[in-house]
Specification:
rod-shaped; about 35% helix
Amino acid sequence: MIRATGGPPGRPLNGKARNGKLGRCTTSRGFTLIEVLATLLLMAIVIPAAMEGITLAVSASSSAQHRSEASGLAEEKLNELLATGDWQSGSLSGNFDGDFAGYHWVATVTPWDQDISGQNIQEIDLTVSWTTHNRTESVALSTLTYVRATS
């Protein structure tokens, strides 16, 4: 019998033993039951955790979008109140229109408690609120202004 080099001593490379019976296969052609079960168990743990992470990320993104929109609306409304002077005598609450119909704003004007100059400085607090998932959220902006003397 001629034997090629590289195989185990006393065993030909074709996988048959000297007695003609098939020898042990040295290459794996599939997965064992334990490997499949371990993979399924790992997937059963990882997939729900990954989905929870995705859900949390989507919720955080939605919350950030609402806060960003509300901050922009609050800044715009506060500038409008200051520019028109409506903070002195106008309506200090309302709803936004159009794409921002779910947002509501309320402004309060109070004398600034740290005013030592005697210039009648007023503090304007503007709060924009909205409801999402049966929960009301809000952002607030504040500024200081003074009452201008009329001539």
